[in-house]
Amino acid sequence: MESKARLLGHSVHQILVPIPLGLFVMATGCDVVVMAGWAPGLANVAFYNLFVGVGGALAAALFGTIDWTAIPRQSRAGRIGLIHGLGNLVVVALFAVSVISRWDTPGHAPTTIGFVLEVLAFVLLLLTSWLGGELVVRLGVGVDDHANVNAPSSLGLRRFASKKIDP
């Protein structure tokens, strides 16, 4: 099933998703280091990663919702997409609360409750990311209807298309 929101032939949701994922992973890693008592300056790095990650996740969610509305409701993909989307809303809310909890702390240091929520969000993010992979890899959601190992470039550039390989 092709994505309904595409840019240059690719799903906008799938283009945007790695940005907040990377920011959330980096932020959580930095905060683990900070909470262990090392490199307190990384708290500021984590704060801004979380702040930008929340914004990026909301942008990705908009395009993910557009794609989800095209999935048949009674299908397995529809059910997984709903759990994936709602789970990610919880993830973003938890990360947002973590950002708010440290807004006025010196050096944007994590609070204990903010750190606990951040780690919880990270663990939930692992599950919702796996569900997103299930949607794309197993169920073909957001994949071009004409995808195959010899499909031409999504940009229509023949010089980048591979030669056909006979079986």
Key attributes of the depicted protein:
single chain; 167 residues; mainly alpha; two-stranded antiparallel sheet; elongated
Short précis:
The chain has 167 residues and is mostly helical. It is built from five helices and two strands, in the order ββααααα. The protein has one domain.
How is the topology of this model organized?
Layout: E1 6-7, E2 10-11, H1 12-16, H2 18-35, H3 42-68, H4 76-101, H5 112-138
Antiparallel strand pairs: 1-2
Helix pairs in contact: 2-3, 2-5, 3-4, 4-5
Structural account:
The protein is mainly α. It has one domain (6-145). 62% of the residues lie in helices and 2% in strands. The chain is built from 5 helices and 2 strands; from the N terminus they run E-E-H-H-H-H-H. The protein has helices at 12-16, 18-35, 42-68, 76-101, 112-138, and strands at residues 6-7, 10-11. Strands 1-2 form a two-stranded antiparallel ribbon. A hairpin with a 2-residue loop joins strand 1 and strand 2. Helix 2 (18-35) packs antiparallel against helix 5. The radius of gyration is 19 Å and the shape is elongated. The two termini are 26 Å apart. The model has no long low-confidence stretch (mean pLDDT 93).
